[in-house]
Write a structure and sequence with these properties.
- The protein has 311 residues and is an all-alpha fold.
- The chain has one domain.
- Helices cover 77% and strands 0% of the residues.
């Protein structure tokens, strides 16, 4: 009983509005400090005071310095994803989409230093990837807007039975427990990912440093989206105790497919990477649109039944 109370208190603390605001202030301060530090390293490298043999593409232009604070902003977005998990499943999914689009934006700042402004723009690999990313960022931004707009729609005003209310409260409690466990787990995974990346980047084996910086966008987030797939499956299984409605089961199952597509995007490069991310968000958006059609139809039937009963 004491351990349950302690866990509940921890859950309330980690997922409280006060903790969110504190995390926001800390992350913003760290992001500003990291940006200034990165700029300083770039200037030291330009003047020949600092010599770093690996990852020099991040030290060639002040624009690349934006990459570092963006990484901390992404960490805060990860926290927000967990924060909204118990509150809204649709918002939780939209946060996944926002994170992957922010990763693309962050990659754009990194790729600015590798651009070659020549007539052969569409023949150079890095320039092509930059083109894909900048178009994808705009398109995906609009798709997320549509997804959030669909997520705000509410159709059913029917009163829940006592059993349904208790089932919903149990499901919310389960989501809070999962979210509370996720925060320390994500922290451990992020620290491990950083240490592992530094070990490879600073390693003496051939090509280790260059490969580490080539895959820097995947650090932590590859493991993070793998964890989210497991979380989505667990939520789907527990949702069966809350509802057995076909359209809700399909929606929750489909969102798992969407997360898997995002995870697969980390395994490929170039246009296929961008297409997998776009496919994930389009798939999630279409799922939500069809789900809302079901909800709308169900609400109309409920209103019709109520009118019939009154007459």
């Amino acid at each position: 009983m004491a351990s349950n109370n302690a866990f509940n208190r921890l859950s309330v603390y980690l997922l409280s509005e006060n903790s969110r605001k504190k995390s926001e202030r800390i992350i913003l301060n760290v992001a500003i400090l990291s940006f200034v530090t990165h700029l300083l390293l770039i200037f030291l490298s330009d003047f020949g005071i600092l010599h770093i043999g690996i990852g020099n593409e991040l030290l060639t232009s002040p624009i690349a310095a934006i990459y570092t604070p963006f990484s901390f902003i992404l960490i805060y977005e990860v926290y927000l994803l967990i924060f909204y998990l118990p509150k809204s499943f649709t918002t939780y999914i939209s946060k996944q989409y926002e994170i992957i689009v922010l990763i693309i934006i962050r990659r754009l700042f990194k790729d600015f230093s590798s651009l070659s402004i020549t007539p052969d723009w569409f023949k150079i690999k890095y320039d092509l990837q930059f083109t894909y990313d900048i178009i994808a960022a705009l398109v995906l931004f609009f798709l997320i807007y549509l997804f959030r707009k669909e997520g705000l729609k509410r159709y059913s005003n029917k009163k829940m039975s006592v059993a349904e209310s208790e089932g919903l409260l149990r499901f919310i409690k389960i989501k809070k427990s999962i979210a509370s466990l996720l925060i320390p787990l994500i922290f451990i995974v992020s620290v491990y990912s950083l240490i592992n990346w530094l070990w490879i980047a600073l390693g003496t084996h051939d090509g280790g440093g260059m490969n580490a910086f080539r895959n820097i966008n995947n650090v932590f987030f590859e493991q993070f989206f793998t964890i989210l797939i497991v979380v989505d499956v667990v939520l789907l299984l527990f949702s069966f105790f809350h509802t057995d409605e076909f359209h809700k089961i399909i929606r929750n199952s489909g969102f798992i497919i969407s997360t898997i597509l995002i995870r697969l995007s980390f395994s490929v490069e170039g246009l296929l990477n961008t297409l997998l991310i776009a496919a994930a968000i389009v798939f999630g958006l279409l799922l939500l649109i069809i789900y809302n059609k079901y909800e709308s139809q169900s609400a109309r039937h409920t209103e019709s039944d109520l009118v019939t009963e009154e007459n």
